[in-house]
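Hi all, posting the design record for the shared folder.

TITLE: backbone redesign
STEP: 1 of 1
STRUCTURE INPUT:
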């Protein structure tokens, strides 16, 4: 990490001490209520009480990227080209806080493929150039997915040409950026047990066109096109102590075991980690750590690839929401970073100013969502403190 990552922001300790005073009484009352066995009216109140009792104190003013790098962990965020090039204040904060950049949209099929026989790298190249200029590592997202496919895909990709289309895409895209990418999400979200296909596979166009072997093919072609990049399998809903997430964890583990048994060049698992502040009580650290250890025992590293904490169903009160969100970040990352194989954490966005959840999971009350480390004014929130604290306390990689 370069010096540019040291920041001259107000001392966050002082900033959040004031918060503490404001919440002190609430926390004591909350803890008292729980201690006396008076169960809170609803889970949000319980979350708030649990979150309120925390200090979220942080030492110093180093950036998240610098704190992570000090432990051998990569921290970065997803970003849209427009936000980076049309908002200079945001771009400056991004460079200040992050050690890695992943394009939120620019490397998906929809952005790269104007037609079956054309590639358009202009947008993605601008992000790669920006990252290179600012000494940021790069992640590619994503070579094979069932979403963000261009309109021509359904009409022009058939069982007859699908393998050639897939191989050509990966060879061309991974080849174009060969040597520049720290890692690629090669295959994204191939598992969806709810769709009841064999081995829990998602009934995606790729499965319909090529069968399960599209996953192995994608990794082998990507490894040949860019031997320097770490190659990830990336997925979501792997986080909570629920029947659905447990089923999905098992199916993903089985997939990774099969790939490794065939010596497929898969190097890491990507946990998207799109968390929900309302579900915090369903997070089971020991269960998560058992799963991560099983993944690591396959010889794989682990990335947290798309971390954010949605607050769609949380109370309107901003202080309460921020505390529950911060506690979710702290609990998840504390548990996950206890696994030495976890080497990178990326949030899916850096500031509430630009979060996909504004459109994807808006609040019924119309209030702006607050899922990310920085607020819409690019100031650190308690979530920032929570992530900083976990990096500071993490073991050296
Ligand atoms: C989302 C982007 O954030 C949106 O801007 C876009 O419109 C749709 O895709 N899991 C993924 C990401 O792997 O690629 C998705 O990103 C969010 C869910």
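Okay, here is what came back for every position:
SEQUENCE:
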């Amino acid at each position: 990490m370069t010096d540019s990552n040291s920041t001259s922001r107000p001392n966050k300790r002082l900033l959040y001490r004031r918060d503490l005073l404001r919440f002190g009484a609430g926390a004591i009352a909350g803890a008292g209520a729980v201690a006396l066995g008076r169960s809170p009216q609803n889970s949000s109140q319980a979350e708030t009480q649990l979150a309120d009792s925390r200090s979220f104190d942080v030492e110093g003013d180093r950036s998240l990227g610098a704190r992570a790098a000090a432990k051998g962990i990569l921290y970065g965020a997803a970003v849209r080209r427009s936000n980076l090039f049309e908002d200079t204040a945001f771009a400056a904060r991004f460079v200040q806080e992050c050690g890695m950049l992943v394009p939120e949209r620019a490397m998906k099929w929809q952005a790269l493929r104007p037609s079956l026989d054309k590639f358009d790298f202009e947008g993605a190249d601008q992000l790669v150039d920006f990252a290179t200029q600012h000494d940021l590592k790069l992640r590619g997202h994503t070579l094979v997915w069932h979403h963000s496919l261009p309109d021509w895909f359904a009409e022009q990709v058939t069982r007859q040409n699908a393998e050639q289309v897939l191989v050509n895409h990966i060879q061309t895209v991974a080849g174009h950026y060969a040597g520049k990418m720290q890692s690629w999400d090669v295959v994204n979200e191939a598992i969806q047990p709810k769709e009841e296909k064999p081995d829990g596979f998602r009934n995606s166009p790729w499965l319909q066109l090529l069968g399960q072997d599209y996953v192995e093919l994608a990794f082998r072609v990507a490894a040949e096109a860019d031997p320097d990049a770490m190659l990830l399998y990336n997925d979501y809903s792997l986080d909570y102590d629920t029947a659905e997430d447990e089923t999905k964890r098992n199916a993903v583990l089985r997939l990774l075991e099969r790939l490794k048994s065939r010596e497929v060049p898969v190097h890491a698992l990507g946990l998207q980690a799109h968390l929900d502040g309302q579900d915090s009580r369903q997070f089971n650290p020991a269960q998560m750590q058992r799963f991560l250890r099983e993944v690591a025992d396959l010889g794989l590293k682990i990335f947290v690839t798309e971390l954010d904490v949605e607050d769609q169903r949380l109370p309107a009160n901003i202080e309460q929401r921020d505390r529950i969100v911060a506690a979710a970040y702290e609990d998840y990352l504390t548990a996950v970073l206890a696994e030495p194989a976890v080497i990178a954490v990326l949030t899916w966005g850096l500031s509430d100013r630009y979060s996909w959840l504004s459109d994807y999971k808006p609040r019924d009350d119309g209030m702006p969502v607050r899922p990310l480390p920085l607020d819409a004014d690019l100031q650190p929130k308690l979530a920032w403190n929570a992530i900083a604290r976990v990096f500071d306390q993490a073991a050296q990689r």
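COMMENT: Residues 104-105, 188, 272, 306, 356 surround XIL (CB under 6 Å).
Let me know if anyone wants the other runs.
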